[in-house]
Amino acid sequence: MSRPRVIRCAACAGRIKPQHPHIGVEDLETGKEFSYHARPSCQKRCVEETVTRLEAGKVYAAHHYHASTCPDAAPGFGCSGGCFDTPMAMAN
Ligand SMILES: [Zn+2]
Ligand SMILES: [Zn+2]
After folding, report:
1. 24: CA distance to ligand 1 center in Å?
2. Which of 39, 47, 83, 89 is least crowded, fewest Cβ atoms below 10 Å from its Cβ?
3. Alpha carbon of 37 to ligand 2 centroid (Å)
4. Of 55, 48, 46, residue with least CA distance to 23
5. How far apart are CA 89 and CA 92, in angstroms?
6. Cα 20 to ligand 1 centre (Å)
7. Rounded to an integer, what distance in angstroms lies between the CA atom of residue 41 and that of residue 14?
């Protein structure tokens, strides 16, 4: 009984298409991952919520998933695909 995993944004509850750029914040204790859209408003929520969880003593790893169409082999911020042209405060 397996079905395709539906990714939903933890900020706006909207569905995230896997081939679109998005952010994953992984709880290193439970392996559970919170996903967020790459759009600025959802990124902002992502930063705020992650800061709150970090203050609660949790440990997280942030993953940046680029669009399937992103042309860079090892993309980062300001990639040529334009996935994450707004750097997040938690990126460093
Ligand atoms: Zn969203
Ligand atoms: Zn990209």
Report:
1. 12
2. 89
3. 13
4. 46
5. 7
6. 12
7. 13
Any idea which ligand is nearest the CA of 81?
Answer: 2
Distance 22 CA to ligand 2 centre (A): 10
- The first and second tokens of residue 77, run together, are 């911020």
SS3 breakdown of the chain: % helix, strand, coil, rounded to 5?
20, 25, 55
Question: At which residue do the structure tokens 């750029």 appear?
Answer: 21
Encoding tokens for residue 68?
Answer: 């399937």
Q: Say what the pTM is.
A: 0.82
Residue 60 pairs in a beta bridge with 27
pLDDT digits (tens, 9 = 90+) for 1-17: 566 678 999 999 999 99
Write down the pLDDT at residue 43. 92
Q: Are 11 and 36 in contact (CB under 8 A)?
A: yes
Averaged pLDDT for residues 32-51: 94
